[in-house]
Amino acid sequence: MTFTRVENLSADQIHKTNKLTDCYGEMLMNCLIQALDSNRLTSGVSDCAKLLSRYPENVMFCILPEAASENISVHIQHILIEAFCWENDIRILKVKLSNRSTSKEGKNGVRKLSSDTNCLLLEYPKDQLSTTDDEIVDYYDTLILNDTFPKPEVELPV
Questions:
Q1: 103-106 and 154-155 as β-strands: parallel, antiparallel, unpaired?
Q2: Residue 120: closest CA among 139, 141, 136
Q3: CA 83 to chain centre
Q4: What is the pairing mode between strands 91-96 and 59-65?
Q5: Partner residues linked to 59 by β-bridges
Q6: Cα separation of 58 and 60, whole Å?
Q7: pLDDT in tens, 42-69
Q8: Which BP terms does GO give this entry (predicted)?
Q9: How many angstroms separate the CA atoms of 43 and 155, rounded?
Q10: 8 Å CB contact between 158 and 100
Q11: Residue 135 pLDDT more than 80?
């Protein structure tokens, strides 16, 4: 099996992928705010590890921000969480996360996602997926599961 490399893609295909990734960054942020409002968002490595060990089937997405290369402990934590998620068929999204993107206005005013954003777990809703949840799942199925490498990182809007 051969993998399509980004260098082999046309400029138009790369531009289209980048545009889609930007659009999905906004949708992911809205999805996180909805999850925060409905208590479906877990943050922090310790709390995420507890949820993953008890109820991995309830986790819809594992969201991992890009780690600073000099912080080896965060890098090791990410690798272990990624391995667990792959083993349990949990979708993994890598994001570019700035300090300013951890707060956004939700329906209850300005909401802060968390002070510890080394790992975020988004649980399935009790009812059905919202439109935003469904679009994020479609994005994952379209861009992340294809054979293009390197995989795009979603950039959360500022």
A1: unpaired
A2: 136
A3: 15
A4: parallel
A5: 123
A6: 6
A7: 999 899 999 999 999 999 999 998 866 6
A8: regulation of cell cycle
A9: 18
A10: yes
A11: yes
**Superfamily classification of domain 9-155:** Ribosomal protein L30/S12 (3.30.1330.30)
The counts of H helices and E strands in the chain are 4, 9
Domain range annotation of the chain = 9-155
Amino acid at 113: L
Strand 148-149 to strand 154-155: parallel, antiparallel, or no bridges (unpaired)?
unpaired
pLDDT tens figures, 65-114: 886 667 788 888 889 999 999 999 999 998 887 654 444 444 444 455 55
Residue 67 contacts residue 75 (beta carbons within 8 Å) = yes
Reading the block at residue 94, the tokens are 């890598």
